[in-house]
Specification:
The complex is a heterodimer of chains A (189) and B (613). Chain A is an alpha/beta fold. Chain A is built from seven helices and twelve strands. Chain A has a six-stranded mixed beta sheet with strand order 5-4-3-7-8-11. Chain A has a two-stranded antiparallel ribbon with strand order 1-2. In chain B, 33% of the residues lie in helices and 22% in strands. In chain B, the strands form seven sheets. A five-stranded antiparallel beta sheet of chain B has the order 8-5-11-7-9, with no helix packed on it. In chain B, strands 3-13-6-10 form a four-stranded antiparallel beta sheet, with no helix packed on it. In chain B, helix 10 packs antiparallel against helix 11 and helix 14 packs antiparallel against helix 15. The longest helix of chain B is centred in the N-terminal third of the chain and has 20 residues. Classes of the chains: A alpha/beta (189), B alpha+beta (613).
Chain lengths: 189, 613
């Protein structure tokens, strides 16, 4: 009896152990469903991930800011939008990109691997990596929102831009962070 | 055997968990209050009733809130966020502190309810027994009050830019009903609900907002509206929309009078969403065949004059007090400040000395402002002292502060100005006098209160003048219209009122100058032309009178009185044929126009006698 019980409980765990080798660790997916390594596509560049979702009003309100920032740093920095909600389909994401006039590559992170590596918790939240995949900054874009439904008229700090500037000047050594306000990413707690 | 050995610690964990959760169930059902150490909280039994009642009205497809909270799967995804946001009392949005007075549609969660959300999230958001799940709430699709009697569409959509700060836009709905309508409710469908924070509708009988449109029908920007009125016809009803709200329906005997051609002006508070949005509101009107027999009144306390808030002040106080001259029933209340307001309190001190809060908002947030209707009957006897006590925070710690770093802020209508207003919708009872007298007494008292508080307040002087004029006291009205014109020398409405009052006290000569000023500042201002016609006619300057009455008939082709007066003036100059034409037109426009009828008889008699001669 005991042996049977163990066997049934163990089965799914054994399967889990078997799956990881099928894809490289920390891979995310493009909208065609292909696993991609964003560090590989932009060698030698600072990489910025912006975690967003289609239905979060706070991350949506940031769309023009995100687009402006990415345009400002387009030469030195590779920007990626990351959608960490597994249920958001590539079709929904394409529609969202169009509606919010994004001109940035979009990735899906349904297993939250990149979200965990980036140490983010909410949308919108940014992560800045060195070209050799060292996390330099994670957190808010700026201090526009201080709380849910409580936004300043305009931000007074520009945390993401500062973090990118530091990364570009190779000033920062230890990772920094500033807590972001936004919609919780389920599955990360 | 090797496989078993490998996973042993994990399977042991799973077994432990199962044992730990076992005592929560009794015969497969969750039981409330089982002595388990930690209370088991399930969606179906504990969370769903709260979520369905407090969250789902907005958190459902097609509504203002970002995601739906109608099912276990939808809600469980947000368990942590819900726990966080309710603990901080950010959601559900409800400004008034719990108090003696209850408001309808109250969204205040108890501490125990909030605790349930936290417990549920901590326990991994369990679903529980399906049998415990209350029925999913059913919401009325489309118009909340059913099919409206009339639907009006904005003439032109407003394009909200994707980026920027709060945005305020005003749409003018031009009504064109053939006769007076009595309106019990107006449902506002603001367009893209996710970007509209609230909307407020006002009646503009004089089309005074139209001049603010650069192109007719496109609407205009502005946070606050100033509606003019040349007869004293005070605001009486709130027409307010906020997300998730069902519009308020007034009792049939308390409907709003809507005259043919009245404008309805919708003031909409918008927040850019990150993408371009097209805002195209629609309003639905619900009529009653019954004309009103009860006339509520929006009693306004305010003290913008003292708003002069130095930078970094965290505790700037503003007060206004008013003693009721007559008994009223308090129906609804609408406190209003801009971005620096922190703590808003309205209280009533009764004649016996006891004090009650009418509303207390300990943490004001402009974004969630609303009109609050009292659940129970609130009677305020004559002699009750109503106090408005507002506190403002102009420090950098107030994140809503429009200035960074903080700057001196004064009273005004722009978003960066501040306001201290409190509107109370009251129904004058008048236990000793007739309700109509009670209402007039109340109107006059508040108008006098406003003038006493600030003799430099243009609107207060004008309103008291208009109030006195409407009760026939032209001599005292004149004094206040003069004061108003002294404060704003070119203001067309006040100059027109001053002219009218001067004619009324038998001084048409002096009336000409202010009336001419009125049409100089506002060309095409028909009421001033009409009064000029009257002034000149009283001075027997009929050629000038004819010129101005003709202008009115051109500007307002349906004005029967203007046609009648034009006819009378023409008759005075001996132009009987033309006189008859205009008098006949006056009667076609209004068969009840007795002046036109009498003059027509006289003109016809003269025409007949001149022909017989």
């Amino acid at each position: 009896m005991v042996a049977v019980l163990f066997a049934t409980i163990c089965l799914p765990v054994a399967l889990l152990v078997a799956t990881p080798p099928q894809t490289a660790p920390n891979h995310v997916f493009d909208l065609q469903g292909h696993a991609v390594d964003p560090f590989h596509t932009a060698p030698g560049k600072i990489v910025v991930f912006l975690f967003i979702r289609t239905d979060c009003p706070i991350s949506n309100r940031y769309a023009p800011t995100i687009q402006d920032l990415s345009a400002r740093y387009s030469k030195q920095v590779a920007f990626f939008l990351v959608y960490p909600i597994a249920s958001e389909t590539p079709e929904q994401i394409r529609k969202h990109l169009e509606e919010y006039r994004y001109h940035l590559p979009a990735l899906r992170d349904p297993e939250l691997k990149l979200a965990r590596e980036s140490q983010v918790r909410v949308t919108p939240e940014a992560a800045v990596f060195s070209p050799d995949r060292k996390l330099l900054y994670h957190g808010r874009i700026d201090d526009w929102y201080v709380e849910f439904a409580r936004a300043r008229r305009a931000p007074t700090t520009h945390d993401l831009a500062s973090a990118i500037d530091s990364a570009l000047s190779e000033k920062s050594s230890s990772p920094t962070s500033a807590p972001a306000i936004g919609c919780f990413i389920p599955g990360l707690t | 055997m090797r496989v078993v050995a490998l996973v042993l610690p994990i399977s042991a964990l799973a077994v432990t968990l199962a044992i730990a959760s076992a005592p929560r169930t009794v015969n497969g059902r969750y039981q409330r209050g089982e002595p388990t150490g930690t209370d088991a909280v399930t969606f179906n039994r504990d969370i769903a009733p709260i979520v369905f009642r407090y969250c789902a009205p907005c958190h459902r497809p097609g509504e203002a809130a970002p995601f739906s909270l109608l099912t276990y799967a939808d809600t469980a995804k947000f368990a942590d966020q819900i726990a966080y946001i309710t603990e901080k009392r950010i959601m559900p949005p409800w400004l008034p502190a719990p108090d003696e007075q209850k408001f309808s549609g109250e969204l205040h969660l108890t501490d125990a309810q909030i605790h349930l959300f936290r417990q549920w999230a901590k326990q991994g958001a369990p679903e529980g027994d399906r049998g415990d799940l209350p029925p999913t709430p059913e919401f009325t699709p489309g118009w909340q009050l059913g099919k409206p009697d009339a639907i009006l569409h904005a003439q032109k959509p407003y394009s909200l830019p994707p980026q920027g700060t709060d945005n305020y836009w005003n749409f003018i709905f031009r009504t064109n009903f053939p006769a007076t309508r009595w309106v019990r409710a107006i449902e506002i469908r603001p367009g893209e609900k996710r970007v509209v924070h609230h909307a407020n509708l006002l009646v503009d009988r004089l089309h005074s907002s139209r001049s603010q449109e650069k192109h007719s029908g496109e609407g205009f920007a502005g946070m606050e509206l100033r509606i003019e009125s040349d007869t004293f016809d005070p605001d009486s009803h709130f027409f307010f929309w906020k997300p998730g709200s069902v519009p308020h329906m007034e009792p049939a005997d308390m409907a709003l009078r809507l005259d043919p051609g009245d404008d309805l002006v919708l003031n909409v508070h918008l927040q850019p969403s990150g993408k371009p949005e097209s805002i195209e509101p629609t309003i639905g009107l619900y009529f009653t065949g019954q004309s009103a027999s009860k006339f509520p009144f929006l009693l306004e306390l305010q003290n913008d004059k003292v708003l002069n808030i130095p930078p970094d002040a965290t505790n700037f106080e503003v007060n206004d007090d008013f003693t009721l001259p007559t008994e009223v029933q308090l129906l609804a209340i609408y406190p209003h400040a801009h971005y620096l307001g922190r703590d808003l309190l309205a209280s009533a001190t009764y004649p016996d000395g006891t004090t009650k809060n009418l509303i207390h908002i300990p943490r004001w947030d402009l974004n969630w402002q609303a009109v609050f209707y009292y659940e129970d009957e609130v009677i305020l006897p004559a002699g009750t002292h109503i106090s408005m006590h507002y506190i403002y925070d102009n420090s950098a710690a107030n994140i809503a502060n429009p200035f960074h770093p903080p700057q001196r802020v004064k009273g005004g209508n722009r978003t960066t100005d501040e306001m201290a207003h409190l509107w109370l919708q009251v129904l004058p009872h008048g236990t000793t006098t007739a309700p109509e007298q009670a209402r007039l007494l109340l109107q006059e008292s508040i108008a006098r209160h406003d003038v006493t508080r600030d003799p430099e307040d243009f609107a207060a002087q004008y309103n008291l003048g208009a109030m006195l004029q409407s009760k026939g006291d032209s001599t005292e009205a004149l004094r206040h219209f003069q004061a108003a014109v002294r404060l704003r020398p070119t203001e067309p409405v006040a100059n027109n009122a001053l002219g009218a009052a001067l004619i009324a006290v038998g001084n048409p000569q002096e009336a000409v100058a202010p009336l001419l000023r009125a049409i100089r500042t506002r060309p095409g201002y028909a009421p001033a032309h009409y009064n000029l016609g009257n002034a000149y006619a009283s001075m027997r300057k009929f050629d000038e009178a004819i010129r101005h009455f003709s202008e009115v008939t051109r500007l307002s082709p349906t004005d029967s009185m203007a046609e009648a007066n034009l006819g009378a003036a023409l008759a005075e100059t001996g132009n009987l044929t033309e006189a008859r034409r205009h008098l006949e037109r006056a009667l076609r426009l209004d068969p009840q126009n007795t002046l036109a009828a009498e003059n027509l008889v006289e003109v016809k008699r003269q025409l007949a006698s001149s022909q017989s001669r």
